Known about the structure:
Elements: H1 3-24, E1 27-29, E2 33-34, H2 40-50, E3 68-76, H3 82-85, E4 86-87, H4 88-91, E5 93-94, E6 102-111, E7 116-123, E8 131-148, E9 151-166, E10 193-210, E11 213-229, E12 232-234, E13 237-239, E14 242-261, E15 264-273, E16 276-277, E17 286-287, E18 290-301
Parallel strand pairs: 1-13, 2-14
Antiparallel strand pairs: 3-6, 3-18, 6-7, 7-8, 8-9, 9-10, 10-11, 11-14, 12-13, 14-15, 15-18, 16-17
Amino acid sequence: MGPTSRLHIAGLILLLSALATGARGQAVVRFDESLGRTRPEAWALNYVAASTFMTAFGAMPALAPGSWRAAVDFGNIPRLDEGQQRVGLRATKQEDLNKTPVFGRVRVAVGLPGAFVAELGYTPPVEIGGARPYDLFSLSLGRRLLEHEGFAFSARAFGQHGRVRGDVTCPARLAGVDDPGRNPFGCRAPSDDRTKLGYYGLDATASWASGPWRAWAGGGAVRAELSVQVDALTFGVRDRSKLTARGTIGFATLGGGRELGDGWSFGAEVLHVPLRVQRETGGPVRSDPLTSLRLQLAYRIE
């Protein structure tokens, strides 16, 4: 079923439901769909997921078995303009994607036998801008494969599981607004949309160290398993559609840092994730990547 037909059917359902709601209670509609990789909705899901990638931040730390390293990450999420946020219903509906300007994570690494290092990451359920993460955990396992005179080459396997909830489809600022110019889709209450941000992948990092200074460049790919469960009340009808996006996403990092002494270290890197999107049906597929600056403060526990 094409998007135009789907919109016509949805409009008919909304009209009939609006006439019958008073007698039969609130109507519920659901249009589940698996998205093509260049669909605007898929691009939005991939953009959000990319901002949460658990990158290596340099070479895998050289930790003896039982040694620990704790860190805090912060990454900026670039603000999207109105055109970029117009992703719903094949780029005909604007969504509130600028929920928060930053993504954060606490991570703890532990040395294992065989020079392996395991790392667990967690994003606390702190609400920012109407979005709150829930059970957002990440995990990695890797080791240094090569070391020579300040040069190191590392590889990891990593993944993430969890979700984010927020009023993306019907933002609170539009709930109940009667002006059709501002609220063309008739949002009656803030939506409770739930976005699953699951992925798993591999990456590799080449790093160089000179005294307390270090630099690195890396790259990898993830298999993203993403979805959004919509829960929005529009024109008195509850929309419970579920959209799913699956695919492989590549990324690259470039960064540097410094050992600060007494077990402390600081790092900064740029994450670049190439993404492509087709915003007009039959139109060109264009590049619209995520480029994010990330910071990390770490402390080593022997």
